[in-house]
Amino acid sequence: MGKLIYSLATSLDGFVSDPAGNFGWGAEEEEVHEFVNKQFRSIGTNLYGRRMYETMVYWETAHTVPEQLPFELEFARIWQGTDKIVYSTTLTEVASARTRIERTFDPDAVRKLKAESDLDIAVDGPHLAAHAIRAGLVDEYQLFVTPVIVGGGNPFFPDDVRVDLELWDERRFGNGVVYLRYGVRG
Questions:
Q1: What sequence ranges are listed for the domain Bacterial bifunctional deaminase-reductase C-terminal (predicted)?
Q2: What is the CATH number of the domain that holds 168?
Q3: CB 166 within 8 A of CB 156
């Protein structure tokens, strides 16, 4: 059975993007990126909303971009090897292999996917993750807390749920990023 993991960079004040939608302040440097690569190897399926998918689909062809760094090429290979499900009412076609579109988020279908999966499943993007959190589907939260305060934007967590957590792991990186890994208590 796979776990459903919600993992993203977040500002210190809890936002994954600022009021203008920018998230470049969360860009990963080599040490963090190599750690993310290691974590990402356990993922067999990624669940995306349309906007997050449109950001992440870059990795489908990243290996063709000149002067990619080895850790970036590694992430591209890992990402290309995963299945992707994009939840969108507007997207008409996908731009990556191993990808399908679902029109609505169905908690029961995700429960079934978790039960049948040998690998973990990642839910990416705060809006889609909010649906999974509200449905009680997220088993693990991985926050990459970035040393920046952005003052607003898209919050990492929805504001209308409570989930009791226990700290499973933590790590500090040289650039000031702090990784926090929490599991759902009980």
A1: 3-179
A2: 3.40.430.10
A3: no
Whole-angstrom distance, CA of residue 88 vs CA of residue 51: 9
State the DSSP H helix or E strand holding residue 85, giving kind and residue range, or none if neither. Answer: strand 83-87
Tokens of 184: 């759902």
Alpha helices (runs of H) in the chain, residue ranges in sequence order? 30-40, 50-56, 58-61, 70-80, 107-116, 126-134
d(CA 164, CA 178): 20
Provide the token pair at 167: 């700290």
| Number of domains forming the structure of the chain | 1
Q: Taking the model in full, what pTM does it have?
A: 0.95
- For 116-154, how does the pLDDT look when each residue is reduced to its tens digit (9 = 90+)? 999 999 999 999 999 999 999 999 999 999 999 999 999
CA–chain centroid gap for 137, Å, is 15
CB 54 within 8 A of CB 122: no
Q: Which residue is listed with tokens 């792991």?
A: 169
Q: Which domain holds residue 19?
A: 4-184
SS3 130: helix
Q: How far apart are CA 7 and CA 150, in angstroms?
A: 19
